[in-house]
Amino acid sequence: MTIQCRTSCGEQIDYERFDFPDGYIYFLPRNIDGTIHNCSNISDKGYLDKHFQKIDEKVDEMSG
């Protein structure tokens, strides 16, 4: 099933499911052409910094 990337980069991708013997399930993001999706949002440090800041703000909110 093709869906929009979960990090909101705008790309349409497929998630390939891998079931491990210990019960862990991993979904590998793949581009429509079958290559592994190298999301521009994950590669962009600014994107991660923005989301980590939101997490920090939420933790501060909850603790205080």
Q: In terms of topology, how is this protein built?
A:
Blueprint (H helix, E strand, L loop, with lengths): L1 E3 L7 E8 L5 E7 L8 H4 L1 H19 L1
Antiparallel strand pairs: 1-2, 2-3
Silhouette: flat
Beta-strand segment tally: 3
Number of helices: 2
The percent range for strand residues is 25-35%
Radius of gyration: 15 Å
Describe the main β-sheet briefly.
3 strands, antiparallel
- Structural class based on helices, strands and sheet pairing: alpha+beta
Please indicate the count of domains: 1
Q: Could you give the order of strands across the largest sheet?
A: 1-2-3
Task: Provide the helix percentage.
Answer: 25-40%
Mean pLDDT: 84
Low-confidence stretches: none
Please report the distance between the alpha carbons of the first and last residues.
42 Å
* Helix and strand pattern: EEEHH
